[in-house]
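Hey team,

Filing this mostly as a record. A colleague (T.K.) asked me to run one chain through the structure pipeline before their review meeting, and I want the input and output archived in the tracker in case anyone asks later how it was produced. No errors, nothing strange. Just documentation.

Input sequence:
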Amino acid sequence: MTLASQVVESFREDRKSLLELIELIALEPQARALLATAALAELATRTQVEQTRQQLEQKIEQKAAQLEQKIEQTRQQLDRKIEQTRQQLEQKIEQVRSELKGELGEVRREIHSYLRWTVGLIIVMWTTTLIPLLFKLVGLL
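Output structure:
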């Protein structure tokens, strides 16, 4: 075992001697200055860590606010685009509806015309068939 290990071990066993050594060190001005400097460095490091933590928290909050703002802007843009697309679709649907109404009206007119021609042809065929039969029955032919 080394001498340093023996000294440390003896201080562990004899607390009174350890306290006397600490008192001697504390009474020495240079030793006090070194201890104070080391303590201040540790304290400064802790303060710096706390300041850095606070700065990071502020930056995170700022970035979160910016992100929320961008999300809101994007949502509004999407809403506008969806509304524009919906209006365009409604216009196209209305246009197709109007075209279909026009086409349907034209088909109805054509069907009506075909129906008139068909009824007219049926009447002509019946009359050409029935009139000679009636004349034959009556005895005119």
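Quick notes for T.K.: Residues 3-138 form one domain. The chain has three helices and no strands.
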